[in-house]
C-alpha cells in the first residue's frame, strides 16, 4: 500500500523538475540573444517541465488516486502559468495564431518541433529517477511497457479530446478578456476538472505534445489512432475556438457584463 512517504518522493521529483526548469529558463534568458532561437529554447524547456512532471503524475494517479493527481495538477497549472512567460508547451496555441494571422507557418512549425524535442527528450531524466527506485511506487516503472489510455471508441476519444480542448480554450479566452481577479485559479480549476472528467475515457491530455511524449508507441493504440485522437482531436477543438469565440451568440452569453460596462 502506498504511503505518504512514497508520495513525498513523487512531490520531491516534481519540485526538482520545476527547479531545474526555472534554472534553465534563467540561463536561456541570460545567454541567448532575443529572437526566435531564444523562444525555441523556452518552448523546449516548458515542454520538458510539463512532460517530466506529468510522467510522475502518472505514478501519483496510479498509487494515490485521481483526486490526489488533480490537486497536484491544479497547483502545477497555476505555477506554469506564472513561470512560462510566452511559452505554451502546446502546439495548438500556434495553430490558433496561424488562423488569426499572428504567426507564420514556419515559425509555428519550429516552435512545435522544439516542444516535441523537449517533451520527448525528458523521459531519460525521468527514467533515471525511476530506475533508482527510491520509492516502492517506482519499482519496475523505468523499463516497463506502457499502455495506451484510450478506453473508448477511437472517434469518441477524438471527440472527447477535441470538445474538452475547445472548452478549455474558450474558458481561457473569456477569462483573459474579462481579466478576472482570480483568473489563473479559475482557468486551472476548469482545466483540471475537464482532465479528471476525461481521465478514464481518453486520458484527458488535451495537449498533443504531452500525449505524444507520454503515450506514443504504447500498447493499445496504433500511430494513426494516436494522431487521430490526440493531435487531430485536440487541434480541431482548439482551432474551432477561434471563430466560435468571435460569434455574437457566444459573446452575449459569456461576455455580456464586460460589454455593458463598455
UniProtKB/TrEMBL annotation:
TM region(s), chain numbering: 6-28, 66-85, 184-207, 227-245
Subcellular location: Membrane
GO cellular component, as recorded: cytoplasm; membrane
GO molecular function: channel activity
Topology term for the membrane: Multi-pass membrane protein
Keyword Repeat: yes
SUPFAM superfamilies documented for this protein: Aquaporin-like
Keyword tags: Membrane, Repeat, Transmembrane, Transmembrane helix, Transport
Primary residence: membrane
Record-linked Gene3D superfamilies: Glycerol uptake facilitator protein (1.20.1080.10)
UniProt record similarity statement: Belongs to the MIP/aquaporin (TC 1.A.8) family. AQP11/AQP12 subfamily.
PANTHER family: AQUAPORIN
Name listed for the protein in its UniProt record: Aquaporin
Amino acid at each position: 500500500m502506498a504511503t505518504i512517504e512514497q508520495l513525498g518522493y513523487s512531490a520531491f521529483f516534481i519540485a526538482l523538475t520545476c527547479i531545474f526548469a526555472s534554472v534553465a529558463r534563467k540561463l536561456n534568458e541570460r545567454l541567448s540573444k532575443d529572437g526566435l532561437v531564444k523562444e525555441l529554447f523556452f518552448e523546449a524547456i516548458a515542454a520538458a517541465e510539463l512532460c517530466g512532471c506529468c510522467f510522475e503524475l502518472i505514478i501519483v494517479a496510479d498509487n494515490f488516486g485521481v483526486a490526489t493527481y488533480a490537486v497536484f495538477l491544479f497547483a502545477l497549472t497555476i505555477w506554469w502559468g506564472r513561470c512560462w512567460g510566452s511559452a505554451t508547451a502546446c502546439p495548438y496555441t500556434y495553430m490558433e495564431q496561424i488562423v488569426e494571422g499572428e504567426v507564420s507557418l514556419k515559425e509555428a512549425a519550429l516552435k512545435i518541433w522544439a516542444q516535441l524535442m523537449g517533451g520527448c527528450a525528458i523521459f531519460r531524466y525521468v527514467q533515471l529517477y525511476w530506475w533508482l527506485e527510491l520509492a516502492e511506487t517506482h519499482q519496475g516503472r523505468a523499463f516497463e511497457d506502457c499502455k495506451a489510455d484510450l478506453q473508448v471508441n477511437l472517434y469518441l476519444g477524438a471527440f472527447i479530446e477535441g470538445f474538452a480542448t475547445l472548452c478549455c480554450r474558450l474558458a481561457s479566452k473569456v477569462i483573459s478578456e474579462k481579466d478576472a481577479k482570480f483568473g489563473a485559479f479559475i482557468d486551472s480549476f476548469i482545466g483540471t476538472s475537464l482532465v479528471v472528467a476525461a481521465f478514464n475515457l481518453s486520458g484527458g491530455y488535451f495537449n498533443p505534445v504531452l500525449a505524444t511524449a507520454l503515450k506514443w508507441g504504447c500498447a493499445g493504440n496504433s500511430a494513426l489512432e494516436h494522431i487521430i485522437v490526440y493531435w487531430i482531436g485536440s487541434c480541431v477543438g482548439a482551432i474551432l475556438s477561434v471563430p466560435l469565440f468571435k460569434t455574437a451568440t457566444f459573446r452575449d452569453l459569456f461576455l455580456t457584463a464586460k460589454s455593458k460596462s463598455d
